[in-house]
């Protein structure tokens, strides 16, 4: 009887871990039309339902949804790179001898 309870407990814990580890797509970070960078995020986000595992929306506004047919093809987006900040970029310096 103890062995059966141990097996049931192990099965329950394994099942719960698999459910909690299930993750959706990653929505890549993007630049909006004003040039502001938005960090990427893992679906579902905090306020999303658990079935919102697909990255949806447009290249300039991304969110998680549950509809696979509304999936955003992030590979076609050209605004998913952070703008380089050249103000603090290293400059080459050649010493004069």
Automatic annotation (TrEMBL):
Keyword Membrane recorded: yes
Superkingdom of origin: Eukaryota
Cellular component GO terms, alphabetical: AMPA glutamate receptor complex; dendritic spine membrane; postsynaptic density; postsynaptic membrane
Major location (coarse): membrane
One record GO biological process: regulation of short-term neuronal synaptic plasticity
InterPro entries cross-referenced by the UniProt entry: Shisa (IPR026910), Shisa_N (IPR053891)
Keyword tags: Membrane, Signal, Transmembrane, Transmembrane helix
Signal peptide: 1-22
Residue ranges occupied by any Shisa N-terminal domain in the UniProt entry: 24-79
Keyword Zinc attached: no
UniProt-listed PANTHER family: PROTEIN SHISA-9-RELATED
Descriptive protein name: Shisa family member 3
Species: Sparus aurata
Gene behind this protein: SHISA3
